[in-house]
Amino acid sequence: MITKTRRLLSVTTAMVVASTSFAFAEPSAELIAAAKKEGQLTTIALPHSWCGYGEVIAGFKKKYPEIQVNELNPDASSGDEIEAIKANKDNKGPQAPDVIDVGLSFGPSAKKESLIQPYKVATWDSIPDDAKDADGYWYGDYYGVLSFIVNTDIVKNVPKDWKDLTGSDYANSVALAGDPRSSNQAVQGVYAAGIAAGETDATKAGEAGLKLFADINKAGNFVPVIGKSASLAQGSTPIVIAWDYNGLSWRDTLKGNPPLEVVVPASGVVAGVYVQAISAYAPHPNAAKLWMEHIYSDEGQLAYLKGYCHPIRFNDLAKNNKIPKELLDALPPAAAYEKAIFPTLDDQDKGKTAITTQWDKVVGANIQ
To answer: What is the pTM of this model?
Structure first.
């Protein structure tokens, strides 16, 4: 079972004619030579079934067959990854990770503890500023946005925005994919509803989100259970608020029985980001840098997209017509992501505090 908690644009339809080749900045010959001399890269917590990592790793091996990829504990959590760095500071053996893929909050904390080292990839400028450390210690690699996952066998009038969920069409239909008193995915769902209400202050956005969910509950539309693919399929929670990549995976798993639609709301599009970093104690620092160049290349970023995770360079790829049409056809419309925002850690903390401490008082739904 995967224990790692993985809970994250302005384009038009005319812009999605894909280039037939990858046109990205190549790593230097010196870096490639140094990495090949090291001969190994040690990763951790990269299950092949998540975000297209199987293809990402295969692509690296194909380009650099001289470098052996040593994959540690694919089911590790972000915390486990950080502990692996700490435990192997003086170890240059196979248990010491070179690179990590962790939740957003772990990037700044790892930097503060001097556990990671800076490196800026060739495509650095195309990574959004609000998804990277200015000094290059960590940067986002992929993200998802909060969406409505809808069983269209039951829900005929699909909701388009957060306020729609208060409507009479959705009696006993709406669930969160977690308890907002403890689940980050659920907290961010409530927070996104507050952003949709027009609030820019994080605390006020949390409070506005609570008010909307109180209205959904008063309307008789909120179902106080944790929404999952099974409850979607059974019809007990025909609308689940979850990360888009979760919904898209559920859609594939259910294979049209029942049919699901993944709707990115018209407003309040909140993104959740994962970040990459190189261990300060990496036994193979040049291989680590070459790995970073690979995953932030066009090829690596599109492999994430095949796994339904939006690559952090999505805007740049779309603007330059590098996204194959078949990839976009498997996702909600590309233009739906144009308003995606990336809350800062401070915003996340403020919103979380407001939501977790006031849910019982304002909404009053005890989620089971």
So the answer is: 0.72
